[in-house]
Amino acid sequence: MIPGKMNSREVKRMMQQMGIKQVEYPDVKRVVMEAGEKNYIIENPQVVAIEAQGQKSFQITGTLKEVIGKKKEVAKEGTEFPEDDIKLVMEQASVSREKAIEALKNAEGQPADAIMNLMSN
Q1: Per-residue b/e over 51-90, b at no fewer than 16 CB within 10 Å?
Q2: Where are the alpha helices (DSSP H) in the chain?
């Protein structure tokens, strides 16, 4: 049988016979990969795990967003931001502390993006 001529049911059957499992993760909202001085964020990902011989491999497709700068955790609900970043946003955008924190949350912890978003409103 020629691999290019196989239908998806035959491929699944062959994978099952070889002990290869494939699992989809439909509820993943984004994937974050931390590296050195950069974070790579994949928005709206489609994530599939393929398990063979006790090893898991992940196939991820989506929109890549590269975040350059000092390494930071991606902002989440309840995440604390560095005081310097909060003050910078407050001063540059002339807003209250609460608005600065909210802007940082919306900008995934990136002060420059937070300031630009506040200034454009």
Answers
A1: eeeeeeeeeeeeeeeebeeeebeebeeeeebeeebbebbb
A2: 8-17, 83-93, 97-106, 111-120
Rounded Cα gap, residues 34 and 31, in angstroms: 10
Q: What is the pTM assigned to this prediction?
A: 0.47
Q: What is the pLDDT of residues 45-60, one digit of tens each?
A: 999 999 988 899 999 9
Task: Compute the Cα dihedral for 92, 98, 102, 108 and give only its sign.
Answer: positive
**Residue 37, domain member (yes or no):** yes
Task: Return d(Cα 86, Cα 83) in angstroms, integer.
Answer: 5
Whether 105 is in a domain gets the answer: yes
- Spatial CB neighbours of 106, under 8 Å, sequence gap ≥ 6: 114, 117
Q: How many domains does the chain have?
A: 2
Residue 76 lies in a domain: no
Looking at residue 23, which CATH number applies to its domain? 2.20.70.30
Do 60 and 29 belong to one domain? yes
Of 21, 100, 32, 37, whose CA–CA distance to 71 is shortest?
A: 37
